[in-house]
Design a protein that fits this description.
This protein is mainly α. The protein has 8 helices and no strands. It has a domain of 128 residues: Up-down Bundle (Growth Hormone, Chain: A). Helix content is 72%, strand content 0%. The two termini are 25 Å apart. The relative contact order is 0.11.
Length: 185
């Protein structure tokens, strides 16, 4: 409950990335100091990352869905879990074989797991900075061309002005959601 109250001020996509980074970093505790108490610490950090990431992921997916298609989108939201289940077993087995049986350094497994998590967070960040923002601007352009909206405020998608109250009022008037604001208008 306290984590939810704190992260409520962060918009969905940065919360997803933050949760992914925390989950990845949590495994470093085992890599740095492999003991029972660090396993408990690692699982606590991983759980905190999951608490931050998971609900906001489904919130983000539901916002992407057009009206009437939320169920389909939520079904596809489980696709990464299915892909992870297919890849995870083989990948984990390869890590155990290489680091535990060949190198006799099982503590290095956690560095690889952390690397995968940080790579995922980096790819999420790249997606946020390139693809997602381009899609938002394209949607506004399509709405202008189709005549749905006739006025786009210059500060709606600017870095300095998008979260100002005037921009929120304009976004509400247009019927679009600013990609930097945590609230859907």
């Amino acid at each position: 409950m306290a984590v939810n109250a704190i992260t409520r001020r962060i918009s969905s996509f940065p919360a997803i990335t933050l949760g992914t980074v925390l989950t990845a970093i949590g495994w470093l505790a085992l890599g740095l100091y492999p003991r029972v108490w660090t396993a408990v610490l690692a699982l606590t950090i991983v759980a905190l990352g999951e608490i931050i990431q998971s609900p906001r992921y489904y919130e983000y997916i539901s916002r992407l869905a057009p009206p009437g298609q939320q169920g389909t989108y939520m079904g596809f939201a489980f696709l990464p879990i299915g892909i992870g289940s297919l890849i995870g077993g083989k990948f984990g087995g390869m890590l155990v074989h290489h680091f535990a049986e060949v190198q006799h350094r099982p503590d290095l497994i956690w560095w690889s797991v952390t690397g995968v998590g940080l790579l995922t967070a980096a790819l999420l960040w790249i997606y946020d900075k390139t693809v997602r923002r381009a899609n938002v601007l394209r949607q506004v352009r399509v709405a202008i061309i189709s005549g749905v909206i006739r006025y786009v405020p210059t500060n709606l998608h600017s870095q300095n002005g998008c979260c100002k109250p005037s921009a929120r009022a304009e976004a509400r008037w247009i019927g679009q959601s600013c990609y930097r604001c945590p609230v859907v208008f």
